[in-house]
């Protein structure tokens, strides 16, 4: 079972690339982020024509998350995180997907960027991590196969970036951001990509600016965290890097975990 997280950076602009990816790779589940589309304009007809069911939580012009399942309709469990009633950002969507070994709970999440810092955007990022941690703790208590997949906007380790110096002042690599991510993992989650590539040096994002892609100046911010039951089934994890180099591609590459 191939579970993918893919920040498409605008589903309208990137729809040909997404459909191409679905056709060529045939993943079982795809978690999308940064749809930049309202619920009404989500291209469900095209996705169904590609053989996928979907649930989505859109927002006009920015944010937005979705869960796609091959040959099935995911069952929505929760949208949004508790803790801030005034938060209207479309950043979290949780669904159940049926599999041969029972249902898997899948969450697609788009954690706030947090720049510039210091300031309210960074404060919101840290609060959001805490709110995610509360939900993650509740999911672990269910003792289910759970995957928290998405763009976390956190570079966890120094070897997860091409240049520590270049990213030192960015919200993605601040001590507080890293501490929040590590505390989340320490609940009992397995970082799938890190487990399969413990030496680091694996990127999931390359900026459009400054020739980052041809220079391979990237970093790792797209993560799949697995509950213990899901982690027991982990067979492999990786990045479909070549898709970042295609015409009008997203600045993220599809990142995946394979469960037995």
Automatic annotation (TrEMBL):
Mg(2+) binds at residues 7, 34, 151, 153, 251-252. One of its GO terms (biological process) is DNA repair. The keyword Manganese applies. PROSITE patterns: AP_NUCLEASE_F1_1, AP_NUCLEASE_F1_4. The record marks 222 as: Important for catalytic activity. Keywords: Hydrolase, Magnesium, Manganese, Metal-binding. CDD domains: ExoIII-like_AP-endo (cd09086). The active site is at 110, 151 (proton donor/acceptor), 252 (proton acceptor). Belongs to the DNA repair enzymes AP/ExoA family. This is Exodeoxyribonuclease III.
